[in-house]
Amino acid sequence: LDRLNSLRKENVLCDAVIQIGGKTHPVHKNVLCAASPFFRGLFTNDMQEKNQEHIELQVISGDVGEEVISFMYTGAIKVEKENAQDIVMAGDFLLIPSLKSAAARFLEATLNAENCVFLRDFAIRYNCSALGEAANCLIDRSFVDISRASYFRELSYETVVDLVSRNEINVSKEEEVLTAIFRWIKHEPIARKQYIHSLIGKVRMFSLSKYTIQECLYEENLIFEDPICTQMFIEGLQIHLFPDSMLNKLIRPRDSLWDTAFMIILIGGENRLNEASNVLSIVQEYDPKVNKWRYLAKMKCGRAAHIAALIGDHIYVAGGFGDKSVHGCGEKYSIETNEWVGIADMQSRRRFAAGCAINGKLFVAGGYHAEDWIAYSSCEIYNPTSDLWCMVSSMPEPRAACGVVKIEGSVFLFGGEKGGRPNDKLGSVVQYSVDNDSWELQRPMPEVRS
């Protein structure tokens, strides 16, 4: 093939001339037909070019004409920054995958935060899947840097809406996506205000802090001057007020926030050393993604056998026992500020009670009395908005140390015990309806347990 290429350059036995960008290149038709389906179709089908000896190709850049023709003879080409994109386009036009992929691999090695968006779009246009995937990965990793770059403000609406729609973009908080949208719109506000509804619609409102939502509603002209956007942010605020409203919606945080959204938090507990009880106030967080523990702010008092539940962006704890007494007090932890604040006391001091969050409130059932090992049948609900506890219907029978599960608008309690003796274990299952404030016995468990 190298010898054939030498003959081509010397115009020996050539039977056609290819003109690219004003330059002429003598060629052998049979070599081009073997290398390119485009030329095979051109020279063998019933087309007017079949018998022509002079063919002009206007699609291919004249800067790479010689290199492309030489590649069809030798299978080798020198790809550089200046010619890589032209070679991809030539390979795509001539239907030569190996030529296109050689240049695409070079472009992949040059990817950075400044060019990855352009090269991603270029890869889509010319069907370079590996280059497109690599560009998308870099876009996801570098979204915040990209959104701050000057060229981001010049991107088309179609590109911006595609970027902010991606689950995979790496952000430390959803506010970074919102800021990017505002930055793009405010660059040309008159022309771009028409896109604000669709762009804001891509923001995961439930991942924004309530303070950000409030600030946008009161201080951001783009939002409070637009009724549709205002309603979007009001609905976002309602999610913070009524977090259970998210349960039936097919929505999720972005991947980078999904990981941090699922931490394991240990709150209090008892550490017995040499038969001496040591009730803990420490709070620790475990991140499964990086396999690390870290300490959070301590509770105001040590507690064990308490109830804990997540409501909105706060963790609520109540009851349990300390080193010297059974608690009726409660407190809440702010995930945003890493602080504990006291809440109203329960109407009964309880330990080993069952508790869960339901309809944005804290439900507590049963548990043991403060003074003895006799279980309560009473239940109460805490309203975070009013900071008040109120009694609700009592269980059909007393129980403590039972299992608890919330399903939609009901709370199910499984087993437990009604006293501290071995024969006080329970196998019954009861269901509490929040809407009806009523209890109903369900099929008991096959085995008693607590």
From TrEMBL:
**What PROSITE patterns does the entry give?**
BTB
The keyword Repeat is assigned to this record? yes
Got a GO cellular component term for this one?
Cul3-RING ubiquitin ligase complex
Q: Which UniProt keywords apply?
A: Kelch repeat, Repeat
Which InterPro entries does this UniProt record tie to the protein?
BACK, BTB/POZ_dom, Kelch-typ_b-propeller, Kelch_1, SKP1/BTB/POZ_sf
Q: What's a Pfam family this protein contains? A: BACK
**Keyword Isomerase on entry:** no
* Gene Ontology biological process terms in this record: proteasome-mediated ubiquitin-dependent protein catabolic process
Which PANTHER family does this chain map to? KELCH-LIKE PROTEIN 31, LD33804P
Q: What is this protein called?
A: BTB domain-containing protein
The species is Nematostella vectensis (Starlet sea anemone)
- What lineage is on file? Eukaryota, Metazoa, Cnidaria, Anthozoa, Hexacorallia
